[in-house]
């Protein structure tokens, strides 16, 4: 059985490589279609559609429902083999049906997300991209179903590492696009069917390979799959009941995302909009994926096992310990990324001015980094007990706030800051949702070690202040917005490289100060951090 520390290290290392190659992918994509422009936003909306469906499949059904059910099925005489075969057969049918329906509705879906912010030509380009991108739904579904089953069987690595192959294929394809058609194709009127096929086909090919590679790891589960259309009598009705609430929850979240996209498309063409927000979100997700997901995912499997055995004391301890360890990394990395926001956004923008425009979007997202990470853990504790209704209830609060803040941003924010205002509204809504979720879980478990957890969070917050000041001071010493970290040479490759180096220098200063202060404060979580880092190092 893989230990939690080793599993977290495997996931952390894989996620780190995946996110780094993902950033390179975004850099090359930006070089191909630009960041602020109609073509980039058209591709952004089209490629967002399969990702939205993937979110419904993964968060709404698989993570919330399937892992606990697979853990329970391990007690069956066949080790869950028959149950999992039925799930895979059903899942494949559902994914094929969802893909076909989305393909038929492609023009309507693009128009739904684009609102009145897109011109007719931009809508047509987005729809053409959608026809190439929507087949990703099927392969995203397979990837999630296989990967979550591997996680439930404590085979943690492949699910995290296979996206690297996707990124490599995408990078190669986007480079081919640039070689064939040139870079910065931000104007809608220059696109022809061949260009659309190369760009959209590349994006879908990467997802396809990402899913198929997971099949090579299946033998490690010790299970044999076979088509089985006899779906009655194995508790799938219970799965449907549980999934119903999570499905509604994720649909509510998708409605909030739809409103955000419709609002922010008003700034498309001249200011940060859909594509810029997606790029900033990718950077924001770097610490979240490396730490929250990598540490939390192995814990979730253990929490599900303890919940199935009704060991509530151990669940309470697991959740509290996971929150503290994750928060240690999240607060440190979040403050480091916030003070390096301009050079960080320079990695995926075309000019220093674009980086300065994009930085507020990233900072506003980062305000919600800790609440989102804590919510990831708390929400899955409810799932472990088979409770999907409660997460739906507190998600409705978040969705209502996001929609309200989005319309407020549309009413009061200038177009140049509209994307940042929408991102800020999402972070505030997430904070409120997380507080409500923690209080409900604390009542449900009869405690959650909150005094100890709040003490730890207090230490982390104290350490973050000098860390942020040190990082910001370093940014100013390096020339701030006019310095080399903002990429002023005029060479695309050199400017982005300088942005990456500047982010690393500023972030490293902040992280070192953060760690030193925590050592002085004798934070007990530092020992867990050292153990995790040692496991990630080569040879460990």
Automatic annotation (TrEMBL):
- What kind of membrane protein is this, topologically? Multi-pass membrane protein
Instruction: Give the stretches traversing the membrane.
Output: 7-33, 53-71, 83-109, 129-152, 164-183, 195-218, 239-259, 279-301, 322-344, 356-378, 390-412, 418-441, 453-477, 497-521
The UniProt entry, under InterPro entries, shows: Lipid_II_flippase_MurJ/MviN, MurJ
Kindly list the places in or outside the cell where this protein is found, as annotated in its UniProt entry.
Cell membrane
The alphabetized UniProt keywords are: Cell membrane, Cell shape, Membrane, Peptidoglycan synthesis, Transmembrane, Transmembrane helix
**What's the domain of life for this entry?**
Bacteria
Subcellular location, principal: membrane
* Protein name from the UniProt record: Murein biosynthesis integral membrane protein MurJ
UniProt organism field = Microbacterium commune
Its gene? Answer: murJ
